[in-house]
Write a structure and sequence with these properties.
single chain, alpha+beta, Bacterial Protein-export protein SecB, 4-stranded antiparallel beta sheet, 29% helix, elongated, disordered C terminus, Protein-export protein SecB, SecB-like_sf, SecB, chaperone, transport
Length: 164
C-alpha cells in the first residue's frame, strides 16, 4: 500500500462544545423595526488529543446590530474529533486538512446550531452563507508567509487558519 493510500481523515465524533445567546436590549429590541446589520466571524483551532486524534473546533460568532445597538450576539463552538492518519506531523498537507477540510465538515452543524439559537431567541431566520474554508486557509497561509514571525503563532504552528 502506498503512502497516499494510507492517508485517512475520519470524523470520529461531532459535538456542540459551547453555545451562547445574548440579547442585551430584550425585550425592547423586539419593538424596533428590523433592519439589521449582520457580522459573522469565523475561527478554527486544532488540538492534538493523541498520536492520531485531533479535536478541531470551529467558532462562529454572529453579531447583529440595529444601528449602533446590538440586537443579539450568538456564539457557537462546533467541535469534531478527527482521526488523522498517514500525514507527516508538520506537513503542509496535514495543516490544510486541519485548517480547511475539517472546518468544512463542521460548518453545516455550526450553521444549523446558530440558526436554531437565533430562532429560539425570537428573531427572524438567519441563514449563514456557505464558506470556502479552502480559500480562507490559503489566504491565511499567504498572510502568514508575508508577516515576519507569523509562523510562530499558535494558530500557524497548528496549521489552522484563523479568519474574520
Amino acid at each position: 500500500m502506498s503512502n497516499e493510500e494510507s492517508k485517512q481523515v475520519l470524523l470520529q465524533k461531532i459535538y456542540l462544545k459551547d453555545a451562547s445567546v445574548e440579547i442585551p436590549l430584550a425585550p425592547a429590541v423586539f419593538t424596533r423595526q428590523w433592519q439589521p446589520q449582520v457580522d459573522v466571524q469565523l475561527q478554527t483551532a486544532a488540538k492534538p488529543m493523541n498520536d492520531e486524534s485531533v479535536e478541531v473546533v470551529l467558532s462562529v460568532t454572529v453579531t447583529t446590530k440595529l444601528g449602533d445597538d446590538t440586537a443579539f450576539l450568538i456564539e457557537v463552538h462546533q467541535a469534531g474529533l478527527f482521526a488523522v492518519r498517514g500525514f507527516d506531523k508538520d506537513s503542509e498537507e496535514r495543516r490544510a486538512v486541519l485548517g480547511a477540510y475539517c472546518p468544512n465538515q463542521l460548518f453545516p452543524f455550526a450553521r444549523e446550531a446558530a440558526a436554531d439559537l437565533v430562532q429560539r431567541a425570537g428573531f427572524p431566520q438567519l441563514l449563514l452563507q456557505p464558506v470556502n474554508f479552502d480559500a480562507l486557509y490559503l489566504e491565511h497561509r499567504k498572510r502568514a508567509a508575508a508577516e515576519p514571525g507569523a509562523e510562530t503563532t499558535p494558530a500557524a504552528a497548528d496549521g489552522v487558519a484563523r479568519t474574520h
